[in-house]
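Database export, one record per block. Field names are fixed; values are copied verbatim from the stored entry.
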Amino acid sequence: MRGHWSLDDRLERVLREVPFEVPPGSAAVTVRLSYDRSQGVIDLGCADPGGFRGWSGGARDEYTITPGWATPGYLPGEIEAGTWYVWLRLHRIPPRGLDYTLDVSFDAVTPPDVPEPPHGERPPRRDLPGLDGLRWYAGDFHAHTVHSDGSLTIAELAELAHGRGLDFLAVTDHNTVSHHPWLAKAGRGITLIPGQEVTTDRGHANVFGEVGWVDFRRPADSWVEHAERAGGLISINHPLGGDCAWLLPISRRPRVAEVWSSGWWDRRWGAPLAWADAWRDDVIAIGGSDFHRPGSDGLPGAPTTWVLAEDPAAVLDGVRAGRTAVSTGPDGPLLLRLGDDLLALDADGLVLVRPDGRRQVVRGDRARLAAIDGPHRLETHENEVIALCA
């Protein structure tokens, strides 16, 4: 199948469905997309007669779906005869348009062999006081694997996060849940939280929990409703993040927000904090590395989100309750709320900034300080943000 997309096509409707017929008895479905990548970007996905079957965005030009396995990002299962659809999102189309070709085949394909990475040691845990039977756990709420545009398998990502000293990691591949069945099998001494980054070119949001696939084609308010209805949790991602900043209309603003991401490259720049204050007056701040591959974005845990919870599997409950803190990394200076007090760790010489604007120099590596209602933070003398807490 050959065609041409124009800029007018994109502006009229950004996501297009190209139908094709799957004959009875097909062993697999393989789709290959060809176009001039130097001129634009076309995202790729799939639906079968029952609905969503997978998404890989701009990360791949080819996918295969069989009864027993599928290309990461896609869901294995029965190859039902009938009308299927190639989803094409016209992400970047130049003024003169973009030619494309789709090749579809139905032959059996041998699954690739994916070796397991070796398992290493975890760094020692920090000495942190608990509260009312709860403990502080270190983690990261934003990371990607080969199931979208990351370079590591789930096991490789889990191993990397475990070696960084994290207790939990949310795996949030773009517009898919194909990674969810594999998370509990990673077995790397770290709790992997199912997530999906609902991704459009006007804003991204993470939905956490086993809530089923969230339809990125629908308005953002429906994402919030989906998360609440299914018992999940939604956060606004990197709201000031360059070409993926939050620009979508939304009437019910989520309370949880990725205030600190690896894209906050100069933390003297106060815009993320100002955005959070303007978004709503009770924001629950979390952090996410948005890890994709080594050498790109931050490593898992850069920044680190700390959650006061019963155990790592209950961190979403801790986030709902607002029991969060964010630091530069697993071993960076840390500011924790313990009831009516704050505990500043490894923060000697830093400045505590209270919600009312009052500032105080922290003395000592384990300082107990009075807290007031609202978020607090640690800064350097140059106003660089070092740690946040609820």
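Remark 1: The first strand starts at residue 2 and ends at 5.
Remark 2: The chain has a mean pLDDT of 97.
End of record.
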